[in-house]
């Protein structure tokens, strides 16, 4: 719904530090300076929607992003809605991307023995907002000899 060309584009949400989510978007190609966008999201397993409380704005004062705290994304679908104030019609998002920037692995330990010329490296998976299985992670180790 909404006037052609006013829907947002390139909607992306990035989760970082486990529970913070930063969503950004571009205004529609034909959106005028007085078009305003409002972001709502419904977390998984919740009946209510939450409006953004901390908008990111462009030079015209239009909302072009939002920062959320205490976010939990699980395996269930998460729904987003962007409502536009231009002509009072809803502007729906046709697709979106959620990316999580992981923290480094936790409790990394290195034990080397001179006799066997071997080292063992142990770690725990990084904290994440939604991945619970250890087998979901793949790691790469780069060894530099000094």
TrEMBL record:
Q: What are the protein's GO molecular function terms?
A: cytokine receptor activity
Record's GO cellular component, any one? Answer: external side of plasma membrane
Domain Type I cytokine receptor cytokine-binding, first and last residues per copy: 11-97
User: Which PROSITE patterns is this protein grouped with?
Assistant: HEMATOPO_REC_S_F2
Q: Which compartments is it annotated to reside in?
A: Membrane
Membrane topology type? Single-pass type I membrane protein
The record's listing under Gene3D superfamilies reads: Immunoglobulins
Sorted UniProt keywords: Glycoprotein, Membrane, Receptor, Signal, Transmembrane, Transmembrane helix
Entry protein name: CSF2R factor
Q: What would be the name of the gene that encodes this protein?
A: Csf2ra_0
């Amino acid at each position: 719904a909404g006037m052609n060309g006013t829907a947002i584009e390139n909607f992306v949400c990035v989760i970082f530090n486990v529970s913070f989510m930063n969503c950004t978007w571009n205004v529609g190609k034909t959106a005028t300076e007085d078009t305003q966008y409002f972001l709502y999201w419904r977390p998984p397993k919740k009946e209510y929607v939450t409006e953004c409380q901390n908008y990111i704005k462009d030079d015209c004062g239009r909302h072009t992003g939002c920062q959320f705290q205490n976010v939990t994304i699980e395996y269930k679908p998460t729904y987003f809605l962007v409502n536009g104030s231009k002509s009072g019609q809803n502007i729906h998002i046709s697709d979106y991307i959620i990316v999580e920037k992981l923290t480094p692995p936790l409790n990394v330990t290195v034990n080397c023995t001179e006799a066997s010329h071997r080292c063992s490296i142990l770690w725990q998976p990084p904290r994440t907002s939604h991945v619970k299985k250890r087998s979901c992670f793949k790691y790469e180790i780069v060894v530099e000899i000094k």
